[in-house]
Design a protein that fits this description.
This protein is mainly alpha-helical. It is 59% helix and 2% strand. It is built from 37 helices and three strands. The chain has helices at residues 16-25, 56-59, 82-91, 95-106, 113-118, 123-134, 172-200, 205-212, 216-228, 240-251, 253-262, 267-277, 281-293, 300-306, 317-329, 337-343, 352-363, 369-378, 381-384, 388-399, 405-414, 423-436, 441-450, 459-472, 477-486, 495-508, 517-523, 532-545, 550-559, 568-581, 586-591, 600-613, 620-623, 628-650, 656-670, 676-680, 687-707; strands at residues 30-33, 44-48, 68-69. It has a three-stranded antiparallel β-sheet, with no helix packed on it. It is elongated and about 165 Å long. The termini are far apart.
Amino acid sequence: MLSSPPRPPHPQRHHNLRHRHHLSIHPFPHIHFRSNPNSNPRLFVISSSSSHTQPNHHRHQETPQPTTTTTTPNKIFRKHNAKSTNLLLHRLPNRQQQEELLLTSRGTEEPNPQTQQDNSISSSDKIKLLEMSLIRKRTPQFPGSIYVQSPSDVDVNSSLPPLHKIFDGGGDEEEQEMLVRAVEIRRGVTVEIFKEAMRKGKFGITYYTNLVSRLGEFIDYVIIRAAEMKQLPEFSDSTYNVRAKTFIDDSNVVPLIRWLKHNSLSYPQIAKLICMSRGNLYAIRHVAEWVKSINVKGRFIGVALTKSGENMLGRSPEELDEIVGYLESQGVRRVWMGYVMSQCPQLLSYSMEELKSRVLFFLDMGMNDKDFGTMVFDYPQVLGYFSMEEMKQKVRYLMEFGLSYEDVGRLLAFRPELMRCSIEERWKPLVKYLYYLGVSKDGMRRILTIKPMVFCVDLESNIVPKVQFLRDIGVRETAIGNMLVKFPPLLTYSLYKKIRPVVIFLLTKAGVAKRDIGKAIALGPELLGCSIHHKLEVNVKYFLSLGISLRLLGEMVADFPMLLRYNIDILRPKYRYLRRTMVRPLKDLIEFPRFFSYSLDGRIIPRHKILVENRVNFKLRYMLPGTDEEFDQRVQAAVERRRRFESGVIDNSSDSQTGGSIESYNYSSDSQCNDPIERTSVDLRVNDYTSSDTHTENENHQRLLNTQ
C-alpha cells in the first residue's frame, strides 16, 4: 500500500525559492521491498525521509532519522501499468530490485502455497471474476490504477486469478452454476459481436436487435465453432472475440440476411431459417432460388421455407423437381404450383412414397384428374396437412349419413374444406342440434350435399343465433327444421349483414305485416339470400308501378314470397298477356300471385286457348294448377254444366233440381283442385259462374270470333 510522507508545514514565502532546489533532487520517495521470504513479492511499501524537507546546508549535520514505514495489515496485490513501471525502473539504483519489480508486475513468480490456502474466493467474487474475464466491454482505466477491474490489458491474466481457481473447492451444484453463468456471459459477448457485424452491414439498430433476439441457436453454434477454431495453428494465440468475429465474417451470414430481406422475408422468418439450417447457410439461398422458380412470390417465400420442415434444406433440386412433376401429372397445373406450395409447404418435405399414397387416397374415391387438380388448388392443405388416419376417419363418418364412397369423393372435390373440421368438436354437436330442431337423417344428407359449408361453421357463434332470430320473428318451432332443409345456405349467411336487413326491408318497404313476417320467411326462406338493392327493391317498385297498393303487396308476398325473387324480364311478358290477351282484371292477379310461377309458353297460353275454344272461363286458381288431365276433366265438366244450364233456361224449367245440380257440380269441380291451399279458398257459389264469369266468357268468345 502506498504511504505518503508527512506533509511539512508551509514555510515562509521567502523560503520557497531556497527549498525548491532541494525538493527537485528527490522528486520520488524511497521504495523499499520486503526481504521477508514469507511476504508476497508483489507487496511493497513506500518510505519517506524527513531530510528532504530540511535545507541543504544543514542536512549533513543532522543524524539520519529512522525510516517511517507505513504498511497495511492486509496484503495487496499491486499491478502497475506500463508507464508507472517504466518510471520506477529508472529510479531504482539496484539491478536486483529492478528484476524483482519486473517479476512482480508480470506475475511470473510463484505465490506462496500458504498464501493461496489463506485466500478463499466467495461466490460473489467468482461471478465478478467471470464477468471480468469474459465480458467484451472494457472499463476505462487510468495510469497508476492499483487494482485492475477489467481485462483490458494485454497481460490481464497476470492480475486476475486463473479461471480454474473459480471451480476448485466448490460443490457440484456451485460448479454447474458457475459454468452456466460462464456460458451466459460468453453468449452475451457473441451477441455483441454479431450486432457489430450487422451494424457494419448497414442494418438499423431496431432490426438487428429484434433479429438477434431470435437467433439463440445460431449464437450457440458460433460459440462452438469459435471454440473449435482454438485448435487451429493460426488461431491458437488469438482471443475468443477475434475467433468469433472471423467465423461470422467467413460464414457470410450478414449478406445472406440482406438478400433474404430483399426477397420480402420478415426478420422472424429469417431467424427461423438460420436456426433451421444448423450452420448450412448456403443451402438457404439455393432452396429459396428454387422456390422462386415455381412462382412462389413475395412473403410466401418465407412461408414456404419456414413451414416445409427442417429436412427441406437438405434436399437437392432434383428431389424437389420430382415432387412438382408428379403433382403436375395428376392434374395440378404448373401455374398453380406456386400457390399450392405457398399454402401447403409440407408437401415439399414428404417422400415420394408418402406423397403417392396421399394422392391415391383421393383418386380411389372416384376423382378424375380435373377434380383432383381443382380440389388441391381450392384447398391445398387437404393433401398435405392432415394425417392419413385422420382423413380416413372423417370419410367413414360422412358415409354414415347414407353417402357412398364415390359420393364422399364428389363431396370432397366440391368442398375439400370439410377435411379441416373436427368430428368431436364440430360435426357431432351440429348433428345433435339439427336433430333437436327436427331435421331427419335424410334432411342432414340434403344439407350436407347442397351446402357442405354448414358442417364447417361454428355452432355456438353462427347457427344458434340465427335459429333464435327465426324464433323471435315468429317462425314456428316445427317449421325451422323444414326451413333449414329447404334452404341450407341460410345457415351460412351473416345474421347482421344479410338476414336482419332483408327482414327489415320486408317489414318497411315491401308492406309485409309484422304478424305475417314469420309466415313469409317460413314459406320462402330463399328471400333471405336475395340482394336488397339488385333484386328485392327492383321487384317491389315494379309491382307498385302496376297499381298494387303497399298493403296488398305485403299480403301477396306473405302468401307467395317467391314473388319478389323473379326477374322483371320474366314478369313483364306474363303480366302483359294477362291484361291484354286474357283481359283479366288486376284483382285476379292480387288474388292469385302464383300466376307468375307458371310458364307462359308451357302452361298459361295453351290452357287459355283451351278455355277460349270451349267457351268457358276459370279463375286463375282453377286454370293453372294441376296436371293436363285434371285440367281437361275440369274443362269438360264446365262445358257440361254450361250446356245443362242453358238447356234449363231455354226449356223454361225453373225447378230447384237445376240449381241443385249446378251447385253440386260446382262442388265436385272445385274438389278436383290438387292444391290444398287453393282448395280451402274455393268459392262454391253458383253466382261466380253465372254472372261475371259467364259474361267474361261470352266476351272472350265474341272477340275470338271477330279476330277469325
